[in-house]
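Q: I'm teaching a short session on how sequence maps to structure, and I want students to see two examples side by side rather than one. Could you give me a first protein with its sequence written out and its structure tokens following it? Keep the formatting plain so it prints cleanly on a handout.
A: Of course. Example one:
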Amino acid sequence: KDFGFIIDYRGLLGDLDQALTAYSGLSDFNEVDIIAAVIDIKEEIAKVKTHYTNLAELFTAVNYQQDQESYEVYLADEDKRKQFYDYLSQYARALKIALSSDKLYEVLSDAEVRDFKQKMQFYAELRKAVKIRYHEVVDFAQFEQQMQKLMDTFISADEVNQLTKIVNIFDDGFNDEVARLGSDNAKADAILSASTAVIVEKMRSNPAYYEKLSKKIEQIIQDYKDQVLSEVEKLANAQEIQKMLLKSNDKIDSIKYPDIIQDSGFARAVYENAGEYFVNVSNDKVDDINAEFSLKVEAILKKYNQRPDWKNSIDIKNKINGAIQDLLWKIEDEFSVTFNEVEILNLIRSISINQ
């Protein structure tokens, strides 16, 4: 073989390391490169304790060691989750090798083996739970199959709550998956994490709208940490965020749209985001002026966005910008104001290509 490693499961290979260094077929290799080509199974079994200890030490700060919810809350920190996944990968690999060898009980006691199996089952369930709770897709390609084989072959997993793949907040099965989580806090975290993922994805399509939702989520999380909200209240607030996202074309409670743009999602997005640029327009109908501008911008976009190459065409981009600049110049002349046209044009383009 050009690469790989050998595991001596029965301790029969003796001083093969030394023999390999003298093998003519390996003459092009440095001795240091092949000195560890053979692995002592007893040493591998001993590594189980090391990786087990790493996991245990990671969770020493968890208040209630028998409560999975406490572990899940502790893993709200992304860096801790990454460390957990890394330690679990190492632990699963070492345990799989150990359980495959008849030398196992020469190194570990019966009680230790039972404990290691139970912890593997617990950590596997914990991993699945936090993946859904914090709405993340982790790349387990390097050890997923090994871990599953370990569970299927050596560890009874009858009591494990098998969770399915992560689903999008807009999918029909999302609420069913959330309902399977244990506490109201876990359900709230799952909804808020999934909502945050949507907000990050859609932020550029309507910065003002999604920024408000993002701040609402931050406030919910902080209020819960400050014990202003109970678990039940946190879940109720999270469900309200979910409703806002599911009705993303409807208004946020704090925003009142003029009637002429009520039926236009794009015009509303322009209206929300361009509003800060119209604050210097000294007119009691400034909202109506902004709304009319937003509708006219929508009309300009409709004139060009049916062409398949409109997003990449410099010529079309210039025509769109020129038409919008004409609108801005008219407002500037009429109300003696000055706009940051570059910012507005960039903002509108971002909204238009991400709608």
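Q: Perfect. Now a second example for contrast.
A: Example two:
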Amino acid sequence: MLLKLAFLVLTVAASAYTAADEVPDHSPQLLLPAQRLRRLKRDHERQTQRWVNFENRVNSIPDSPERGFELALYYAITGDEARGKEAVQWALAHACERRQAALVLDWTGPLIATADRSKLAAQNCPDRGLQNPTSLRDAVFLKIAAGEDISKLVDDSRKQITAFLADGGFQDAAQLYAAAEYMMAVRAAQHVDVREDDSTFFLQLPVEFLLALKPDKLDHPGWMTHVAALALVALDPNLESSQFLQGWAIADRQMAREGPGVAYELLWADPYLPGIGYQNMNRWAYDARGHLFARMDWEPNSCYIEISPSDVKEQNCPPGWRDAPAAFGRLTLLPMPERCLELPHVQNGDSLIVWKLKPHEIIHTEQANPEQGKQHKEPQGVSEADAAGMWRVPMNITGKACTAAR
């Protein structure tokens, strides 16, 4: 009798939850590795300020444009099924919000019926192409959430992402944020680090991002700039450059306390990473592609410059600075006034960049031979300016630098 009763119970349970409605393992595949999810659960348990700000938004802003993301995150942290089901319904009504639909699909998996899962994964939306990090991130997210292979998509897009950022696209905070999410998703799904395509650039990207902020934006960034910085730190918190950026981004004055940034603030701000005071880092960053960001100090009225192949931008700089040597911390920026220039002595740890050259102009250097007198010069080497007409002088180069006849 007991065996028959047990069989009947199992039969009823099976009919209520058929194989057709089975869902994959609920372990999130997107943005919520176990360690981050544990930290978020601690925020909830301890009712931290970031959690309270986030919960207030979930409870008070039902028409948020980020509603699907916010509700799905709330469910992933708390297990509140009512909020999770609300996230599913929102995603079904906004299926072309690709990123949010993918996160709902991934984070609320056990709550989604098979038919609804197919609708969210179908991608029956207008084709917006794969032209920038945002569209590429969205495409990768949806494929991962739907359990599809992303290998070809990644192979076709990873160099595009890297080139976009390295060419200055990282100054668009929304695109930088999307690129960070793309790289984290690819690394988790395929164990591939996209940054290996240009490791030199990515090693200094966190400080270059910080130095690219104009002085009036340093203490009052927009929320997207702030969360892009936090996500960039999360991509590799062990980098020294990330620790400088963390020191800036984790400051209380930067915290998003209301608005759409609070969900991202909760997701990315890790208070267990104290960071390093950014005031202690170099006040300039140079990329051999032809980008220089530099400031004379960290005050809001500091002289700030940005030199690129397309333009020279400045803020708060004294008149005539372009025509004379200018010091930005331990960097001296020296204009090329004539065909030849006597290079100044540079102390150990300092740097010298000669600019106002033609793009890719060839520079010949020569050095006096002390055995034959100062007037006797010997060829030392040949260098080339970058695409913006800048030449970072190697440490072992002294003497005279000349270009071909102009």
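Q: What should students look for in example two?
A: Point them to this: The longest helix spans residues 173-190. Also worth mentioning: The chain has a mean pLDDT of 90.
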